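WARN no homologs supplied; continuing
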Amino acid sequence: MRYPVWLILCLLIPGASVMAEITVETGRNTGLRTWKWSHHGVSLRLVQRLPDQTRAYVMGKGFPRDAADELATSCFFGSMFRNDGKLPMDFDLREWKVVQNGKKNGMKVRETWKQRYRERDDISDSARIGLNWSLMPTVQHFEPGDYNWGMTVYGLPPGEKFDLHLKVVLDGKPLEAVIPGLQCAPETVEKPVS
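OK structure emitted
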């Protein structure tokens, strides 16, 4: 599915606008949805993660069940940023907003979870480090040809829909974009029939 071009994006510079493309796909074998935003060679791909995928992953790292359940029901996406364009790009996930029912909230970034689990004796340092390195870096700089992936967390229950307001800096110029209609993976997904 492609969203109409008019739906998308404005530069922060008044009067200047840009066009981007957003595509949505559903995995034939998994039923999970993927959103891809792209603009001038820069792209962000967001893939739903089932709560059980995240639960199993963090329990495998050593998180106790209650913390694993909290993480699993916080809306994780597998995320990949690429800069296949010709301009350098920067982002700070703390500037991004999760918008639902007119309310704007920040994402749950690396620092959120470090703070949340800092004082728990039942979470090992290796488990904390494993989670930290699994998440997309909060702040990052990409030269042309650079890419990175990790998980991003939106702090909503399974199945919830939201819009993502993202900000990047492309060649020193701020760019704001909206990816509308994202949806956290539900607890279970009905697999498509082949």
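DSSP finds four helices and twelve strands in the chain.
OK
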